[in-house]
Amino acid sequence: MNILKFRSDEELNEAGASIITGLVQTNPKAVLGLATGGTPVGIYRRIVETYRKGMVSFKSVTTFNLDEYVGIPKDHPESYHSYMKRHLFDHVDLQPENTHIPDGNAPDLEAECARYDRLLEKAGRIDLQLLGIGHNGHIGFNEPGGALCGGTHVVRLREETRQANARFFNSIDEVPTHALTMGVGTILKAKMILLVVRGADKAEIVHRALTGPITTECPASLLQTHANVVVLLDSESGRLFP
Ligand code: PGA
What we know:
Strand content: 15-25%
Strand order of the largest sheet: 1-10-9-6-2-3-5
Order of helices and strands: EHEHEEHEHEEHEHEHE
Shape: globular
Helix content: 25-40%
Bound molecules: 2-phosphoglycolic acid
Structural class: alpha/beta
Radius of gyration: 17 Å
Number of strands: 10
Largest sheet: 7 strands, parallel
Distance between the termini: 14 Å
């Protein structure tokens, strides 16, 4: 595992963006696994800047997002469909038909999960999966518990996850209670994983996930079993690493 610590947000964003754009420059048909949340915003901004300079094209790239809320409209500003358009899709030459996000409004959510897994299967292994980590150690919306799912599934969000995401909504009551998420099996099948972590409030969980016991009670700890993980930490989240 390659753990890199950065003094500034900008340096971290630059490193994350250049790993992703570098992959796409050498493999224009790359399959990217994308994440949402506060953590990757600055990385997407740098990717868009690189694209605008003409240094990378996404026209043959395929993307799969990790997750989506259940029960808020696609055009709700906090849906992950809206987030991806706002931060990346509307600003680069990705072909809409090559971008994939689970549909949290599908009439049959189980069928939607199966459809998403079929698409993933057809695309082959994800070349690079971008990940954040939740305060409780979740990756995607794979919440801690006695067992984890391999494939895409419906998840009931833990209260701490809803609290953490309430900052994006008017109130906690508006935060959806359920989501669809890619499973840990799919995440761990990616050829490379890029875990990005920011902030003092994540210092303990990222340290526990990467150095503590491997347990379903901390889904990110399973990343220790993966052969190709790059971790980008800011100085605050990396406080407990030498
Ligand atoms: P955040 O979320 O980037 O908004 O902190 C990360 C996560 O919950 O995986």
